What does this fold into?
Amino acid sequence: MPIDQTATPVSPEKPKRNVDDYSSVLRDETPTWNMLNAFAAKPMNVCFDSQLKEEQVILLLRQHPVTQVNWVLMTIFALLLPFFIGPLGFLSFLPMKFQIASMVAWYMLVAGFVLESFLSWFFNAFIITDERIVDIDFVSLIYKNISAAKLDNIEDITATTGGAMRSIFDYGTITIQTAAANTQFEFADVPQTAKVTTLLNELLLEEERERIEGRVR
Amino acid sequence: MFVAFFQLAVGTVLGETSAEFPMLGDFINGALKGFFVLAGILYLLFAFIATRQIATMKKTLDTPFSPVLNLMAWGHLALAGLVLFYFINL
It folds into this structure.
C-alpha cells in the first residue's frame, strides 16, 4: 500500500498520517497556545498522564464560556454585596475589629468560590487524540474521574443542541456510545458540536482505513 | 427575626452591658475570635487541598497554563495563611 510521505511525524514501523491529511476540520484550524480556549484545536504543549508516546492531542474541549456566566455573575454580586449592606449597619453591633474580620472572611470565601469554580471548569476537559477520546471529570476538589476509549470502540455519536442559548452561542452536548468499559461518554455543553462530530467521524474513517491498509497499531 | 434577636443580644452584651458584665463581654469576644480562628484554619485546610489537587491535576492534564494555576494556588495558600495570622491576632 502506498504511504503518504508528506505526513509528519511518520514512524518507519508504524506509518501514521498527520491529522491534517485526513481531517477537513483540523486542516482549517491553526495550532493554539491559548489554554483558556473552550475549543482548542491542535493545542501546543498539552499532554495527559496516560498519553502514549506517538499519541497526538488534536482537540481539547471544555464547556462553553457562556455556561460559566452564572458563577461569574454570582462572584460580581458577592464582591459588591458588602458595599450595599455595609451602610445598612448589619454588622454594626460588632466591635470594629470583628467587622473588618468579617469583611476579610467574606472576601476569602469569594476567592475560594472563584478558585474552585474556575478549576472545575478548567479541569473538566474532553480530549480527542488521534487514537482515543478521554473524558476528565473534575467533580470537586477531592473527587475526579478519568475515562478513555479507543476510537475503534466508538459505536455511535449523537450531538444535541437545544434551546435559545445553545443555538445563539453554538454549543451543545455530544454523547458517544462505545463498546469500552465505560459505555457512554458525554461531552456536555461543548462549543461547535458540528465540527466535533465531523472530526470524530473523520477519525473513525481514518481508523477504518488504517485497519484496511494494515496500519493498525 | 432571628438575626435581629441575635444582633440585639450580642450588641447588648458587647456594648451597653459589657461594663456591668465584663466577664460575659470577654467571653463573647473570645468566642467570636475563636470562631474566626476556626474559620481561618478550615480555610487554610481548603487552600492546602486546592494546592495539592492542582498539583495532581497538573499531572493528569498538563498545559502551558499549569504554571500560572500553580502560582495562583500557592498565592491563595499564602493569603489563607496571612488571614489566619490576622484572625489569631484579633
Chain A touches chain B through 37 residues (CB under 8 Å). The first helix of chain A runs from residue 19 to 22. Strands of chain A lie at 39-41, 47-48, 57-61, 125-129, 132-140, 143-150, 154-160, 171-178, 184-191. The helical segments of chain A are 19-22, 24-27, 69-85, 96-123, 164-169, 193-213.
